[in-house]
Amino acid sequence: MIVHAYAAPSATEPLVPTTVERRPVGPADVLIAIRYAGICHSDIHTVRGEWGPITYPQVVGHEIVGEVVEVGAEVTKHAVGDRVGVGCMVNSCRECENCRAGMENYCLKGNTGTYASVDRDGTITQGGYATHVVVDQDFVLRVPEAIPYEAAAPLLCAGITTYSPLAHWQAGPGKKVAVVGMGGLGHMAVKIAAAMGADVTVLSQSLSKEADGRRFGAGAYYATSDPATFETLANSFDLIINTVSAPIDLRSYFGLLRLHGTFVSVGAPPEPLPVQVFSLFNNRRSFAGSSIGSIGETQEMLDFCAERGIAPEVEVIAASQINDAYERVLRSDVRYRFVIDTATLGA
Ligand SMILES: [Zn+2]
Ligand SMILES: [Zn+2]
Q: Whose atoms come closest to the Cα of 43: which ligand?
């Protein structure tokens, strides 16, 4: 099946309209007519070869929502007409210790990424900036009716990437949580942590998004450009979720953790960061990382967001605006996630 898409022809050229081939619908596959696809910063790193060389042309996009239009003979989890989503992975080995524990995102053989990954048939996976995609039923999520399609898209990466560590480290009533960065991931971390009942503080470079942060549920908002912030908030937080990919001074942030507090990075600079181990001794602090979430946890997150009435703030764009949107993402000029209306892809 040949479908309309937007692809990067090389690391240095803008994305262009094109077509991409989807595999025939296998017995366990679901064919999805994509309605919206979110733009994640990872898409930009990937197409520009900043996370290593890739094969071109490459279609990216791993925040995919749409409607099931065909199912394979053995599919039991989804039916034609269902509202569904696909996130950052489309398969895993299913045999390793982590897969058997239901943590496919930590597959020991590496999960199959939704794009720029080698699929089981040896082809390179092509992502969601397209009108259709074929995905194994086990990696397709149910999108509750309560969440509008366009708002659901960013939950599949930005939502689960922040929900997973918040749930794992038990953000909730009585817990003080800080969110570093108020971008696509950060704004979701604030909404989800607040919905979980935690006391949420935003640590952003400036106070320019303070009104938004408070509207999303933050009780306090501080500028990290002001050194006084790190003195005022010393020994304050049970959990810090760092969504920033730029290098930061870890020691300053570790100093903000109270007894048994944990600093979790979901954003990562490409270069290593020095860690002053002594700064972890005080308050028996932990430094951790977290990568997306399992399929089970992603479904739990979608259901949680539907129940609590929370969703990402999105700006819907046409396919022709993708390259401009990339530049705006790089300038942090987006509140808070671009979502491509795929109806504009093949027109
Ligand atoms: Zn992403
Ligand atoms: Zn595995």
A: 1
Q: What is the CATH number of the domain that holds 234?
A: 3.40.50.720
Using the 3D structure, point to which of 251, 270, 289 is the last residue of a domain: 289
Q: 249 and 171 share a domain?
A: yes
Residues sharing a CB contact under 8 Å with residue 303, sequence separation 6 or more, in sequence order? 144
Q: How far apart are CA 82 and CA 262, in angstroms?
A: 39
* Structural domains in the chain (count): 2
Q: What is the pLDDT of residue 347?
A: 57
**How far does residue 277's CA lie from ligand 1's centre (Å)?**
30
Statement to judge: residues 138 and 227 lie in one domain: no
User: What tens digit of pLDDT does each residue of 67-89 get?
Assistant: 999 999 999 999 999 999 999 99
3-state SS assignment for residue 129 = coil
In sequence order, the 6+-apart residues with CB closer than 8 A to the CB of 346 are: 3, 4, 131
Among all ligands shown, which has an atom nearest to the Cα of 157?
A: 1
Domain extent for 194: 159-289
pLDDT-wise least confident of 169-178, 189-198, 240-249: 240-249
| One-character DSSP codes across 162-230 | HHHHHHHTT--TT-EEEEE--SHHHHHHHHHHHHTT-EEEEEESSSTTHHHHHHTT-SEEEETTSTHHH
- Ligand with an atom nearest the CA of residue 93: 2
CATH number, domain with residue 82: 3.90.180.10
Ion ligand 2 residue ranges (Cβ < 5 Å)? 92-93, 96, 99, 107
The alpha carbon of 82 and the centre of ligand 2 are apart by a number of angstroms equal to: 28
The Cα–Cα gap between 184 and 164 comes to 15
Mean of the per-residue pLDDT values for the chain? Answer: 96
Q: Is the pLDDT at 259 greater than 60, yes or no?
A: yes
Pick from 201, 36, 215: which is nearest to 131 by CA? 36
Ligand that lies nearest to the alpha carbon of residue 46, given by its number in the listed order: 1
Name 4's bridge partners: 19
pLDDT at 51: 87
Is the omega angle on the peptide bond into residue 14 within 30 degrees of 0, that is, cis?
A: no
For residue 232, the CA-to-ligand 1 centroid distance in Å is 33
Confidence of residue 267 (pLDDT cuts 50, 70, 90): confident
- 138 with 174, same domain: the answer is no
